[in-house]
Amino acid sequence: MIPNQWYAVLESKEVQKGKLIGVTRLGEKLVFWRNKNGEIICLRDKCAHRGAALSAGKICGEGETVQCPFHGLEYDRTGKCKIIPANGRITPVSERFKVDSYPIREAHDFIWLWWGKKRDEYPPLPFFEDIDEKFSFKTYKEVWPVHYSRAIENQLDGVHLPFVHHNTIGRGNRTIIHGPYVEMSEDKNEMKFFVDMQKDDGKTRSLKPEAFPMDKIGNFYIHFKFPNLWQNHLTDKVRIFISFVPIDEESTLFYMRFYQKIVRIPLFRTLVNWLGIASSKVILHQDRKVVITQDPKKTWLKMGEKLFQGDLPIVKYRQRRQELIEAEE
After folding, report:
1. Whose CA, among 19, 96, 155, 319, lies 20 to 30 Å from 201?
2. For residues 292, 293, 296 and 300, what is the CA-based torsion angle, rounded to 10 degrees?
3. CA distance linking residue 42 with residue 123, whole number of Å
4. Regarding the domain delimited by 5-115, which CATH topology (the fold level of the hierarchy) does it fall under?
């Protein structure tokens, strides 16, 4: 995983007041809960004493501490153990009784976790600025048995459409890919790409990215933000969004959302959002059948694959991902 990044790891509604939730994210077992003010607290889900899961314990002290279910040790939001009952409440607790804590933000109906070194100031959350509060949405989530890099690269791949999605979004047998044309942001932490596809008439060759027909650049494009956010910008009012959440090195949780701001009447809005996510699930499952067969499960910049021109967005993604990892190392 890319360190020192914000990752959307849960939806807000999944962490409710008065309840502990234990999950695995980025290869770590984590416990989340809310205090009496609704603020999210996140610790490593492993007691420093004998390794029991804190998520099996209970919330104490108006939501400010969590109690281990095994021997009653209580930890505050910083991960420091405040009480060891067997020693007596008035006995000071050694500094060595501490678990990792994680900086948390809550925005866009997601809970965000900072994966990296703690600092005085943190960068902004990497959400899409053009998805505003006027959009409504419905979410679907599922787990794939692949590294999150494979999951992301599938959504940066235009070449597979007429084969994997031949009876849905890839209808028409348009196998020739012109470009793709890729735009990188100034800091290289987000990319947009555009494709133009046509049937193979036996006379046409795909155009190079530098010869991409600029009149094909419009409101439809794929937009990706590091470390793991993607949107299919269908129109100014309709989007498909995915947060690819790393569970561990071999599994990825998809939070897929259908966003729209065409229909705002509550009942009809709910129906449209349901239909939007239902059709998106069909397409996602067509992808899943193929992606889970890819070997290896994880990708990196140089791995022996034989890539061609249509893979340019994937190459750009791998290059930047490698740069970000190496910069932190």
Report:
1. 155
2. -60
3. 19
4. Rieske Iron-sulfur Protein (2.102.10)
CA 7 – CA 113 distance, rounded (Å):
5
> Are 5-115 and 136-328 the same fold in CATH?
no
pLDDT tens sequence across 289-321: 999 999 999 999 999 999 999 999 999 999 999
DSSP, collapsed to helix, strand or coil, labels residue 41 as strand
CB atoms within 10 A of CB 35: 16
Those residues with Cβ within 8 angstroms of residue 215's Cβ, 6 or more apart along the chain or in another chain:
none
What average pLDDT does this structure show over 58-84? 96
Q: What angle (nearest 5°) sits at the alpha carbon of residue 294, between those of residues 325 and 188?
A: 30
164: helix, coil or strand? helix
Q: How confident is the model at residue 117 (pLDDT cuts 50, 70, 90)?
A: very high
Q: Where are the domains of the chain?
A: 5-115, 136-328
- Please give the pLDDT value at position 328: 84
Q: Other CB atoms closer than 10 Å to residue 318's CB: what's the count?
A: 22
pLDDT digits over 96-107, tens only?
A: 999 999 999 999
Q: How far is CA 178 from CA 181, 182, 212, 262, in A?
A: 8, 12, 6, 31
- The CATH H-level superfamily of 136-328 is Naphthalene 1,2-dioxygenase Alpha Subunit; Chain A, domain 1 (3.90.380.10)
Instruction: Give the per-residue pLDDT at 46.
Output: 98
246-262 mean pLDDT? 97
Predicted TM-score (pTM) of the model is 0.94
Could you tell me how many residues make up the chain?
A: 329
Q: How far is CA 81 from CA 17, 48, 64, 118, 243, in A?
A: 22, 9, 12, 19, 34
